[in-house]
Amino acid sequence: MGSSARKKKEKKKDFQKTKLKVGKTKAKPDNFTDTSFKAKSIVVNQQSLATSAPSSSSQFAHYLSLASSSRSDTQRRDALSYLTSQLSSAPVNRPLPLPTSILLPKLLPLILDGSSSVRTQLLKFLRLLPASDIGDHAESALLYARAGMTHLAAEIRTDALAILEWLLEVAKEDVVSCPGGWVKTLKSFTSMMGWASSSGSTKWTSASKASFGKAGKAFPRQLLVLAQFLKAGLMESEDIREMKIGGALFPLVNMERHMIPTRSNAFAHLNLFGSSRDEEGEMYIDREDRQRVFQMLFQPAVEVGMANAKKEGGEAGRAAAVLAKVLNEGMADYSDVDDTQ
Amino acid sequence: MGKKRVGALEKVDADLPNLQYKIRRDPKSYSEDFLNQYGQYQSQRDIFLASPTTATSTGIVSFRDLIDFVAHVADCFPEDTASFPSDLKTILTLHHASLESELREKIVGSLVLLRRKEIIDSAELLNTLFPILVATPSKTLRALLFQKILSDLRTSNSKSVNHRLNKTIQTALFNLLTSDRASAKGIWAVKITRELWKRQIWTDAKAVEIMKEAALADNEKVIGGGVRFFLGGDKEREELEDESSDEEAGIDIGKLKHQAGINKKSRKTKKSLEEAVKKVKKTEKKKNQPHPLNFSALHLLHDPQGFADTLFSKHLQNSKSKLNLEQKLLVLQLVSRLVGLHKLTVISLYSYFIKYLTPRQPSVTTFLACLAQATHSLVPPDALEPLVQKIANEFVSEASASEVASAGLNAIREICVRQPLAMNETLLQDLVMYRKSKDKGTVMAAKGLLSLYREVGADLLKKRDRGKTATMGLKSGNIKERRFGEEEVGGIEGLELLEEWKAEERKRKRAEKGLPELGSDESDEDEDGDEEETKGWENWDAESDASSDSGGWINVESDAEIEISDSEDEKPAVKKAKLDPLATKSKPESETPGNDEEKENADKDKAREQKISKLATTKILTPADLAKLQELRLQASVSKAMGKSNSKSQSQRLKELADRHADDPLTAEQIEGLSKLRKSTREEKIALAREGKGERGEHKSTQALRRQKKDAEGKSTTNKEKSRKKNFMMTLGKAKFKQKRSLTQTRRVLKGHIERSKRGGKRGNVGM
């Protein structure tokens, strides 16, 4: 019997539970095999360990998307400043990392951005873009510029004026002749400066209660930009004048007109494929057209406003004088044109 | 002053709601501000239209807010915003799929707002919204548009029916259904029409026509919608009406007045009381208004025969139709209802049933109900006979389950109620034997069949099954077999009730005058009739009453009536003499001539039937009569619903049975009878358990519920309840004293208790 009790004990031993203790590692089982190893080097098959950073073009794209869609102000500004530095540091003849047709649609909405630092940074960036590329995008840029000019916030309005100035510098002709570029922009000028009048009601009082417009300091600047704009629209641009004068290639008259057009969508004014445009959205390609429309719709309001500004004197008065000069020169030959027709 | 104003205005800058408020108060002064905002709106719109998909409304003021703002003040500057509605419309129609959802909803809301301000009209709005509703893939937008369209239709029909708008919309819906029958877009036409039908905004034949087209569509969903409308649309409408009338009746003016008298008097309570009074008056007025004529959709159908034919051939007979069994059953129900209701002839329908009449067929009871529903008196018995035979063979046998047998018997009975000629002698006698079965359902079904044929075809039964009345009728030649196509001479429903009521009134008046109750005096009756009639017309038209000849005219009229009633009185008496002596023996005192009340039941019935035609043909019913008739009819139907068994003759009961089928659908439950073929669903079980237990909002004791009910009724507590609730400390003294009482004191108390209980309480109720 004794031996069987011993055997029982032995059998039991195999199945005894090991006690677990707090704070101590679990006891290893009997059949534990240590699989750890030491090696001097490890070769990993699938992973690539390229030492180079992401390419500059992909980084450029990344920052572009950050600038256009990031939620945080500072991030947008920083992304924009990165883009600016990339462009400015690049050698002169190197092409842009991304074409303008991709850059502009993404960045133009920032004209209406709430943060002023973003807007100023944007203007810096835009000035770095090649001027020849802007002409095709003048229409979309103008859309945002106009939205900025009629914006509620005064700062955005002034910054939008800066954008418009830049546009006038780089693509004068396109700005005034693109669809909606002439009438709509003038309209937003008049409403910005508080010269607009309701089309329906007759005015009882001349006293304007407009809550924006006439914004003190900004007003002379507005006058100056308007003067620039009118100058671009109402005066003949130099190259056309040159062309008119140019008798260099004597037997060939108006040769430019019969060549293959250099600009894209040369027959846009015929509006063959788009939806029909109204008076506001129409393209006014000729100077005469612009003069006519201006005289019809805006001249009285502008002259009244200008006269008031002149009376104010000071900076505004001087700006108004500049505007008056442009207006006189621009509209000087209008009446005789009208007579001849 | 001016300076201050400018200072205040500077706040306007980014605050559109504030500006909106100011513009609404003084549009002219703020027109420039508005123009600025409108300019901003325009430039934002241009940006949006230049690239609808990528444009984001970030920035201080979003495009959405601008749209909202312009929509709210558009009515102040109609010239400036002339293009605004069309802008919104083009944006919505062109870009609704790619717009972000909030902007989309805002545009829809703004359009509706413009409609409310009457800048655009309903037709314009609906013509914009409806195509989008049909086309858009977004579920939320669909829900929004559906709701807006419905609410606009309701508001434009609220004051008076806008026929033009309804017509254009109905045409649009009709075209939507008919232009592409296979597309699922038609479901929107169905939904809109059904909703408007339910709310009684569209009640005309055109709406029914739309649904008819839906039922004949190719898409399963559309078909289902159309068919369900015909089967349940009217019931839904009635339920909604009942609900709304219930809601209005909820105000208790007396209580409100009482409360106003007791509670603190304030302007608010006064106003609320006034409003309540106004509301009650309004509902009273509404109640007194004539009930609008609501024809059911089935009655408004133009060409029921053609409709039933095409439905049947297109969806049921056509082997290519893709409907599943459930949908097919729906269509079948509709077809059979149409056939039964309008007594149409679709012969191939009956042979269609044959293959479905087996106990193994899923939802066979519905098929049976449909078959019975499709039967009417003008169906040739030849078409029905094989069906009845098949049902009898398949369902009714000793070997089949009792539920199956009773369902079969019930179905046969329902068929034979409508067309008794579908039965032959041997089959009937065989079926009737099942009344000896062990199962209750089968017994009842067989007995029903037996009693039916005692009425309509006693000669088919064995002699011992015929029963007394039928045997007597057969003997005297009273009961005749109805031939195929023979119609009973019609009467006006409830006219006999009116007749009875008039007789009673006459009797009552006589009693008042002190005349003998059973006065057969002609002059008396004449007088009374005269009086009644003039009274009846009195309320109706004062002018005709004033004319002198009306009195004479009435005299002549009532004379004629009396002549006829004389002859009528004699007739049954003669007939009775001819009858077998059993009846006369049982009530010999009924022989007194000219006495309506004491006749035997069968005779009375007959006399009544004869009178029906007399009353309607010999007398012009006054409006008062008609009102009374309506009332009596209602009463009778109510008492019928309450289950009061009137001592009606069997023929009347039979007629009732037949009447029930004309308007109400026959359901599978009626065929199943007592026993159920299928398992009852959980909902049914719960309903069965709940039945008769009343509304039980929360789980409380019965006592608490009772108390709650009493509280709601404003009743006080009982003494027992009071004592139970009494503060413990207050009871302590008495309890302590009880232990210390002497024997005499105890005796006195007990005596007092007995005395009080005899008297009936402390105050006592003796001599009250």
UniProtKB/TrEMBL annotation, chain A:
Region feature Disordered, mapped onto this chain: 1-33
Q: Which keywords describe this protein according to UniProt?
A: Nucleus, Ribosome biogenesis, rRNA processing
All copies of domain Pre-rRNA-processing protein Ipi1 N-terminal, residue ranges: 133-230
Instruction: Note the superkingdom of the native organism.
Output: Eukaryota
- According to its UniProt record, what is one Pfam family this protein matches? Ipi1_N
Where composition is biased (Basic residues), the residues are 1-11
Which SUPFAM superfamilies is this protein grouped with? ARM repeat (SSF48371)
Localization, UniProt: Nucleus
InterPro entries referenced in this protein's UniProt entry, alphabetically: ARM-type_fold (IPR016024), Ipi1_N (IPR024679)
**Among its keywords, does the record have Nucleus?**
yes
Q: Which GO terms describe its biological process?
A: rRNA processing
A GO CC term attached to the entry: nucleus
Per the annotation, which location comes first and is thus the protein's main one? nucleus
Q: What does this protein do?
A: Component of the RIX1 complex required for processing of ITS2 sequences from 35S pre-rRNA.
Q: Which PANTHER family does the entry link to? A: REGULATOR OF MICROTUBULE DYNAMICS PROTEIN, TESTIS-EXPRESSED PROTEIN 10
Q: How is the quaternary structure described? A: Component of the RIX1 complex.
Q: Which family does it belong to?
A: Belongs to the IPI1/TEX10 family.
* Annotated protein name in UniProt: Pre-rRNA-processing protein
Q: Which organism is it from?
A: Hyaloscypha bicolor E
According to the entry, what is the taxonomic lineage of the organism?
Answer: Eukaryota, Fungi, Dikarya, Ascomycota, Pezizomycotina
TrEMBL record, chain B:
Please name the InterPro entries in this protein's record. Answer: Sda1, SDA1_C, SDA1_MD, SDA1_N
Bias class Basic and acidic residues marks the residues at 570-579, 601-612, 653-664, 680-701, 710-721
A single BP term in Gene Ontology: protein transport
Q: Name one GO cellular component term.
A: nucleolus
Q: Where in the cell is it found?
A: Nucleus, Nucleolus
Protein keywords: Nucleus, Protein transport, Ribosome biogenesis, Transport
The segments labelled Disordered in the record are 507-625, 637-768
Chain intervals with Acidic residues compositional bias: 519-533, 558-569
Ranges where the SDA1 N-terminal domain occurs: 69-438
Residues covered by the SDA1 middle domain: 553-692
Q: Which residues form the SDA1 C-terminal domain?
A: 715-760
- Sequence similarity: Belongs to the SDA1 family.
Function, as annotated, reads: Required for 60S pre-ribosomal subunits export to the cytoplasm.
Q: What is this protein called?
A: Protein SDA1
